[in-house]
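Q: Hi! First time doing this. I have a protein sequence and I read that you can turn it into a structure. Is that right? Here it is:
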Amino acid sequence: MAASVRITTSSIMSPSLSWKAVLAALTLAVAAEQADAQMSPIQPYAGLETRQIKALSGEPVAELRAGEGMGLALAAELNGYPGPRHVLDLANQLGLTDEQPGARPATL
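A: Yes, that's right. Below is the predicted 3D structure, encoded as structure tokens:
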């Protein structure tokens, strides 16, 4: 007598088998994404190596040469104090003496 094998849908797609299939599909998707990223590298800093000052474009360099500063007074201004450049620009309105604009704290 031949033995009959009974195959049901629940025996083919058991919960552990479907979970493994999903995990395998996700693993393949992640691997494919990483391979694609390696094949087409993004170079956001391409061309910066040719600048005289690598981290600055032409505009900030021109502003620095003109004595306009780099906006580093932000911390002072956020805490209610004027930035050093603003103090110099408003020296007359602030009533500074002739010595005060050139004076620096001893800590500098």
